[in-house]
Amino acid sequence: MAAASSATAIPSLDKVDFLKLQNGSDIRGVAVSGVEGEPVSLTEPVTEAIAAGFAAWLLDKKKVDASRKLRVSIGHDSRISAQKLQDAVSRGIASAGLDVVQYGLASTPAMFNSTLTEDEAILCPADGAIMITASHLPYNRNGFKFFTSDGGLGKNDIKDILERAASIYSNFLAKGYSVKASESVKKVDYMAVYTSDLVKAVRKAAGNIEKPLEGFHIVVDAGNGAGGFFAAKVLEPLGAITSGSQFLEPDGMFPNHIPNPEDKAAMKAITQAVLDNKANLGIIFDTDVDRSAAVDSTGRELNRNRLIALMSAIVLEEHPGTTIVTDSVTSDGLTSFIEKKLGGKHHRFKRGYKNVIDEVIRLNSIGEESHLAIETSGHGALKENHWLDDGAYLMVKLLNKLASARASGKGVGSKVLTDLVEGLEEPAIAVELRLKINQNHPDLKGRSFREYGEAVLQHLGNSIASNPKLQKATVNYEGVRVSGFGGWFLLRLSLHDPVLPLNIEAPSHEDAVKLGLEVSAAVKEFQALDTSALDKFVQP
To answer: What are its GO cellular component terms (predicted)?
Structure first.
């Protein structure tokens, strides 16, 4: 359908370095002005060019004949810039001759799911999907995640899209840019379909009982992100009581806490809600619902290593002996729990949810059976769910466990979940210290921060090799991981920033300090490395 012009031309456009907007397999930028030193980078013309770049990439990828128009679904989280960016994305998609289907407030997993659902009545499957989100970042940020039925796009695809966007934007610069209202936009309530599928999954696992969670009191904390649907649209139809649930209303200023299951204040908020309401279980999501965590009835947090242990126990009951793929910062206690207690295999890989998912797909392709890829951040993907990292689906797996325990007469508590992580060794001390690289320091000698960081890691690895008290991990895919003094440390290079995060876990503060001192001694000659966080930690 032709797009009708509805606004005056915008007279001047700034030049933009599109590749700087890449954040691994996502695009991220500043969408709202008002924070000092953070100029807006995701303007409407930039956003429109990115969407048109995705449309061009999709046309190349799908290679459909002219008789069929491709369609792209668009959803967003609760950010205050969502509507403006959704309109700009819609214009970019429509300008390339593709059909646009807007879902409004949605979750990231639902957007991927829309490329798999087959139902023409709701214009599915979508050929491509775009989620407008910046996960748990501050209110002024936003960004994009892209999907096809093959899953989330990878780094190379994102680079390709941004290069196409830069070329489209240079056309805007040359010929002028005007806002054209797109007429080929349809709206669908896809979240109703997605939540109905989650409800069906729990009912099926419980032997087709209509209300398998009847009598359970479960509180949800959505952190004012997009996950508020889970209480009324998933838990209540299953019979659960959800009174005491909090921050379910979407509010892109995130007034209560950061919607992030790794954030201490966020976890404290859901824990308090569980205890105050004497609930059986608490569930918390990040802004776009691709990450989650839980809290049991005693207020014990089921996140990070504990959530991985819990999901591993559930998956290994269903698939004995299978491999569990995790990110690099998981504990030694988790390895021992997966391998010795559960009889599985722990494959510790790199940080980054896309890295973990790509690795699990690779292992399955070479004959190593694996059903779970999960990060300490709360990203978790299951083979049975198309390797989609879906925070809501992870929680459905916990609900299935609760429902089946109740059906077999074990009551309505969360003890069945707590019992599954019995025997997980947990360190007394677990810290992450961030060692920043000063990119303007002369010690870089013209090297990029990445090259400098690699030199630090190389030197640390060499110095550890001659130390009898320490043992370098024999199988390791990221950074330098070392065991000693009853604990371990991992120094690695951040995926995107000029930072070397240092994780230390140990049985006592004294042992953690000993590990810290070993790192400190090895890296002290690197003058561009800001070790102040480490220096403070090891001080007597």
So the answer is: chloroplast stroma
Are 498 and 449 spatial neighbours (Cβ–Cβ below 8 Å)?
yes
Token pair listed for 413: 């508590």
The structure tokens 């569980």 sit at 274
Structure tokens at 103: 């879902």
Single-letter amino acid, residue 24: G
3-state secondary structure of 166: helix
Q: Which residues contact 524 (CB under 8 A, 6 or more apart)?
A: 531
Strand intervals (E) in 300-354: 301-302, 323-326, 345-348
Which tens digit of pLDDT belongs to each residue from 464-504? 998 999 999 999 999 999 999 999 999 999 988 899 999 99
In what helix (H) or strand (E) does residue 145 lie, and over which residues does it extend?
strand 141-148
pTM: 0.93
As a three-state string, the secondary structure of 96-125 is CCCEEEEEEECCHHHHHHCCCCCEHHHCEC
Task: Tell me: do 233 and 335 sit in the same domain.
Answer: yes
Q: Position 168: which residue type?
A: I
Torsion sign, CA atoms 138, 139, 144, 147: positive
